[in-house]
Specification:
Layout (H helix, E strand, L loop, with lengths): L6 E9 L4 H11 L1 H4 L4 E8 L6 E8 L2 H8 L2 H10 L3 E10 L17
Antiparallel strand pairs: 1-3, 1-4, 2-3
Length: 113
């Protein structure tokens, strides 16, 4: 039985300079508002090495319909309200994961014989 590919959300957030640590702490503190949703597969916070006030947030969902339901939910609006004062600007892109190619470092190492 083939499963539906994950629906991926990719956010770019630019944080007001000097508020990066506060943003990271807030994101961690309130992250369960996203990850506790039954359709959420996980999320990642990445800080740009090139622009220290820029972050990338990736979030995977079971499907687009359930993400869109979450997006308009009270829990998401509350989540956004806490992060919004820290944000200078942001953008969102969405897509369905087509395939995943595992890298050599992620493959199991055969046991020594």
């Amino acid at each position: 039985m083939a499963s539906t590919p994950p629906f991926r959300i990719m956010l770019t957030m630019r944080i007001h300079p000097g508020r990066e640590a506060e943003f990271e702490q807030t994101w961690l503190r309130i992250g369960d508002a996203v990850t506790s949703h039954p359709a959420n597969l996980g999320q990642w916070l990445i800080r740009s090495e090139d622009e220290p006030s820029t972050y990338f947030i990736t979030s995977d969902w079971v499907d687009e319909a359930q993400f869109r339901e979450f997006e308009t939910s009270e829990r998401h609006l509350k989540h956004r309200k806490e992060l919004h004062p820290l944000r200078a600007s942001g953008s969102m892109a969405t897509g369905s994961v087509l395939t995943h190619l595992a890298g050599a470092a992620s493959l199991p190492v055969p046991a020594a014989g």
